[in-house]
Amino acid sequence: MAVGLDLLVQFFPNFASIVLAATGLAIIFGIMGIINLAHGEFIMVGAFSTSLAYNGGIPFLPIDALPGLGRLIGAMLFAALVTALFGLLVERTIISGAIPNWIAERTVGHPVITPLYDRLLDSMVATWGLSLIMVQTFRNVFGNSLSGVPIPFGKLSYGNSSIGLYQVLLAGVAALVLVGLYLLFVRTDYGMRARATIQNESMAQSLGVNTERTYMATFALGSGLAGLTGALYAPLLSIEPGLGAAFLVDAFVAVVVGGSSVVVGTLLSGGLLGIVDTLFSNVYGTFAGRIALLIVAIVLIRFIPEGLSSLVERLRERRLEVD
Amino acid sequence: MATESDDTATRGPLGRLTAALHGPNTMGNSRRFWYLFGVAVLLFVFFPLYMLPSSVTNMSQYLSLALLALSLAVVWGYTGVLSFGQVAFFGVAGYTYGIVAINVTGPLGTMAGLVVAVGIAALFAAVLGYFMFYGGVSDVYVTILTLVVVLVLKTFLDQTAGDEWTIGEAALGGFNGMPGIPDLALGIGEPFLVFDDFTLFYAALLAVLLTYLGLRVLLNSDYGRVMVAVREDEDRTEMLGYDVKRVKLTVFTFGGALAGLSGVLYVTYFNYISPSELSLTAASLPVIWVAVGGRKTLLGPIVATIFIERLGLFLSVNVGDWAFVINGLLLLVIVLLLPEGLVPGFRDLVSWLGDRRSEGETDDTAEPTGEVVE
Question: Transmembrane residues, as ranges (chain B) (predicted)?
Answer without folding.
Answer: 33-50, 62-80, 87-105, 111-133, 140-157, 200-219, 249-267, 287-307, 319-338
